């Protein structure tokens, strides 16, 4: 059969198919084949015709050509079963044909014979978009998403604009939370449709997660250029988050404000603005946004706690107390609720309530040092030093850090000294100093206590001297050193140090004035002594000891 005969037969066949679909032998046109496949349920588009060139026409088996044509007609008529039979007959006659094998697998896929279709495609070595997409459909239908992904990745490598593959991969990588792959596929999607701002926003968010911050900035700014009005919110949020992660708060809050103007009731934005202004000590503005957040999220316990803490910071204690009590009534037993209620009760001098709140706090958070210190403080304020010592000692059993143990030991030592248990206090301060040799307060406290009781004066002098090395301008430490000099009988030195302490004190202290009066008196200067005792008595009018000195 010569070439002219074959081409003539093709033309006749096309006319017959177009008008009657009644044909028993011959071939189909590319247009018919493409229309047929385009109408299939999976929408796979065959982009190549059976007969591509004269060389193929010369080599094709005539019977294969006949069966393939019948398969196309049957497929066009919706008879997939007959189409499958005809394609298989054609394939038996012409097994190396990509087009026949692909057409057979495509029909098998539409007949839901997915495993059979994949078997049919096994021998095809040609890598094409339509082939990979058909494989992807079969694998997806069989629930084999791993191989489906591999097939669609091959498609994207060949054609990054293919919507079937990119859409599936975007969905699949989201399901797997594979952020690196999401960046890759969304980069492809952004090129398919460069005017889709949502794709750019999503790409920017994935870029943030993978640390590609500069790329994310470009994505969000590109999205901004494509949007108007409320569409800009997502881009503003993304830019705000980027600068937040960069610790560039001012830039971050600029974009959050821009977003907030478009979406004033966005809880995330309100929370960020409240946090920002609280860090900037703009407490009135922080309260405005925190209060707004509570109104937006009335069941948000964390928001109420935050607002209550802001109220405490601005001394709006009744408002803070009301919020915290509401939280407790609602069953929120967060330790911070008891902490702040305890502190508020102390300020109000409602020590019974303070004891109640702080006792619960020590049970809820036994390793938190402040809970023990605050409770002990309440007992000290109510003149129950023994109970305070017991509280501090209990706390020592729970705290983990050395610094926390030091704080509690100092409180114990001070309480013991106030209870006139000087020997126990000395032991406590010695233990503290062994843990922290440079604790200047403990060094001074122990040194002064020994000097005041006339014990181990040289050792007391060394302790206070070390405290002064650590804090040479501390008026209290200088007073202690002058006092130990007084106890050692070095009165002139005592006057020198105590005079310096007076000059450095930030607030007038009757004890320092009394000490200086004693030093002047011991050095033979009773006139100056009386001056300083008088000053001390003015500050402490109930001190009978000073009054007796003046009456002598």
What's the topology here?
Blueprint: H1 3-19, H2 30-38, H3 54-59, H4 62-76, H5 80-93, H6 98-110, H7 114-121, H8 129-141, H9 145-158, H10 163-176, H11 179-192, H12 197-209, H13 213-225, H14 233-245, H15 249-262, H16 267-279, H17 283-296, H18 301-313, H19 317-329, H20 335-347, H21 351-364, H22 369-381, H23 385-396, H24 402-418, H25 422-435, H26 440-452, H27 457-470, H28 475-487, H29 491-504, H30 510-522, H31 526-539, H32 544-551
Helix pairs in contact: 2-4, 4-5, 5-6, 6-7, 6-8, 7-8, 8-9, 9-10, 10-11, 11-12, 12-13, 12-14, 13-14, 14-15, 15-16, 16-17, 17-18, 18-19, 19-20, 20-21, 21-22, 22-23, 22-24, 23-24, 24-25, 25-26, 26-27, 26-28, 27-28, 28-29, 28-30, 29-30, 30-31, 31-32
